[in-house]
Amino acid sequence: MLSQLLPMFAVTFSVFLLFFIFMGIGYMVKKKPLRGSCGGVAKLMGNEKCSYCGDDPNKCDSIVAEQQELSLKAAALGKPL
């Protein structure tokens, strides 16, 4: 039984490790908080303050809106972001 469990544990651990590594690289490249950090479980528990957005839950939405505006302007000029 242990001979079947050990390879399964090694594969599972490796997959989780890869996910954490790629999430870390993605955060370092984009320098943005993970999506869904404002709201979600914290909102269900009664904590409506968002530490990632500077205690302003609308700030994440405004940042996304600004980025969309910039991408539209860049597309109008024919320049990639």
Structure description:
It is a single chain. This protein has helices at residues 2-30, 41-44, 57-77. It is an all-alpha fold and 81 residues long. It has two domains: 1-31; 34-81. Keywords: Membrane, Transmembrane, Transmembrane helix. InterPro entries: NqrM (IPR007495). It comes from Psychrobacter urativorans.
Give the count of structural domains. 2
Strand fraction equals under 5%
Tell me, what's the shape?
elongated
Helix content: 55-70%
Q: Distance between termini?
A: 53 Å
Mean pLDDT: 75
Query: Which stretches are poorly predicted, pLDDT < 50 over at least 5 residues?
Result: none
Cα radius of gyration in angstroms: 19 Å
Largest sheet: none
User: How many strand units?
Assistant: 0
Structural class: mainly alpha
Run of helices and strands: HHH
Separate helix tally? 3
